[in-house]
Amino acid sequence: MADLLEVRDLVKHFPVKRGVLFKQTIGWVRAVDGVSFTLGAGETLGVVGESGCGKSTLAQVLMLLEPPTSGEAFFEGRPMFSLRGAELKRLRRDMQIVLQDPYTSLNPRMTVGDIVGEPFEIHPEVAPKGSWAGRVRELLDVVGLNPEHINRYPHQFSGGQRQRIGIARALALRPKVIVCDEPVSALDVSIQAQVMNLLGELQSEFGLAYVFIAHDLSVVRHLSDRVAVMYLGKIVEIGTEEEIYNHPTHPYTQALLSAVPVADPALRGRRDVIRLTGDVPSPIDPPSGCRFRTRCWKAQDVCATEEPALVERGGHPSACHFAEERSVVP
Amino acid sequence: MTALLEVEDLHVEFRTRDGVARVLNGVGYHVDAGETLAVLGESGSGKSVTAQAVMGILDSPPAFVTKGAVRFHGEDLLTASEERRREVRAEGIAMIFQDALSALNPVFTVGFQIEEQLRLRRGMSRADARARAIELLDLVRIPHAKQRVREYPHQFSGGMRQRAMIAMSLALDPEVLIADEPTTALDVTVQAQIMDLLAEIQRERHMGLILITHDLGVVAEVADRIVVMYAGRIVEHADALSLFRSPGHPYTAALMRSLPRIDSKGTALETIKGLPPSLLRIPAGCPFHPRCPRAEDVCADLVPDQVRLGLGRTSACHFAEEVVRG
């Protein structure tokens, strides 16, 4: 599979400022701190991690909504961050995003038709002017909404329907990649399943590639071909869905998986449970060496002095000096 | 034997500009000492409103309790005096909320908020109350409790705030603790810590715990008994093992099938068609019938009674016996 997207050593730091008039930078939030991965056409890469691990910042940088501090990304072999003019416009067509909160990500004063059709104004080459309304109706139909509702406003729809509107908007320009940033975490279980199935159907129908960002490990497993686990701005383990869930080697991945409650009371007290202590350290001042060492039960002196590289250990890349397979999912 | 806390045929409506929303339509459950009851439901099912009615903290208007009883040791709280209710809220039943940051007062220290109740209710001196507050923070495993007691809620992380709120709720040794989505806003590793803590405290103090949640996984790990709510009604009541092994209501069954699993990739998820009903216009008959895969004509006409399924289980479905057999 040729790589559609390749990200190399991507870094995004945000300044922390103090003072009113004479602002001084007193530190940096290392939101994304050296992330590399590839994404093939039609493939889904899941990105999991807890709050503050940098997964949403990664989405923002990939969508060119935030400039990177350093690092490179290539889309179909072209360096994304230095594109200008027509090439940049073309890239923005090929990469779209679906956001988490369907309540704040749709303009309440625009009709559904305007929201879904707005991309055509910027990219008229995709749909000639007279055909917009027809195209919007098609798109609404594709995502399972009633095309007759084209003149309604977002508040007239439920949360799940609004998320469908967001998906229709993302599909309008026939992108090759959609970055989904927590697309189902605001939805109830019964609605979540509908939207997840829709994302799956659209992928096979249009050959889309997804970067699927979520904190819910079950949701990510369900949709992903490969999975990257992030902790404090870094990928700590990456592999196929099977490798990450059935053969995790990084202690953080193991702890994360074991913390997920399993919907089967018969397994109560019979699971291999790893309980982490404490909270995630601040990304302003992350621990030296391995960033997970302050919560890790395997930590040794070397973990504080030497940062473990994300290299092949036990079958797939894992950033732990003591990477060792341990099955935690029942 | 009277239950520790019992909700009986509770009806609550919200009188809004758009009409009367029937938020609770005959909800009944009970919890005994040393037991964990999970109340499972999606947004709008009425699970939180029931808890607020129990605590007497519903905003009225728009909310009105039109029928029913809330009995604590057999005493109906809905007809009790405001003074008596305050007493029960302080000493008998405590509640913790999903969003600890907005449930804590930002302008007082965490310590002050724990001590306040001890000084008012127990007549403790400042020094004694402070010592007790530190003990409580220790109990919920907040590191460096002695220093932390002087800090403000914004200086705590999300998990620590939830711990502080648990400490606060335990200050007066309640017999019942109502936890309304206590871990929904937390990361999964922190959620696991908080659920372990709640389970341990509940065991040690032999408390009744009512856990309100939408998360089937959390329910499966801690609940003794489960009530499933839909559109302001209890559609199923069962012990945890039976409910997960053989759900007795089509809604419960569909909910379980629509859940992505951590232990296998699976293909397309089964979905529940349509949306939960608007509480302004709850469908006639069984409220779930427009979305139910096995609905028949009778479902649109008759509200199903609670059908007994043995082992103390009930299901509000005309075809409960067939559903439970699978």
Could you give a short description of this structure?
The complex is a heterodimer of chains A (330) and B (326). With 330 residues, chain A is α/β, with parallel strands linked by helices. Chain A has helices at residues 55-62, 85-94, 112-122, 132-142, 159-171, 189-206, 217-223, 241-246, 251-259, 301-305; strands at residues 3-18, 24-40, 44-48, 70-75, 78-79, 95-98, 177-181, 209-214, 226-231, 234-240, 311-313, 316-318.
Protein traits:
heterodimer; A: 330 residues; alpha/beta; 10 helices; 30% helix; globular; B: 326 residues; four-stranded antiparallel sheet; 13 helices; 12 strands
Can you tell me about this structure?
Chain A has helices at 55-62, 85-94, 112-122, 132-142, 159-171, 189-206, 217-223, 241-246, 251-259, 301-305; strands at 3-18, 24-40, 44-48, 70-75, 78-79, 95-98, 177-181, 209-214, 226-231, 234-240, 311-313, 316-318. Chain A is α/β, with parallel strands linked by helices. In chain A, the strands form three sheets. In chain A, strands 6-7-8-3-9-10 form a six-stranded mixed sheet, sandwiched between helices. In chain A, a hairpin with a 2-residue loop joins strand 11 (311-313) and strand 12. The two termini of chain A are 32 Å apart. Chain B is of the alpha/beta class and 326 residues long. In chain B, the strands form two sheets. Chain B has an eight-stranded mixed sheet, with helices on both faces. Chain B is globular, with a radius of gyration of 21 Å. The interface between A and B is large, with 46 and 47 residues.
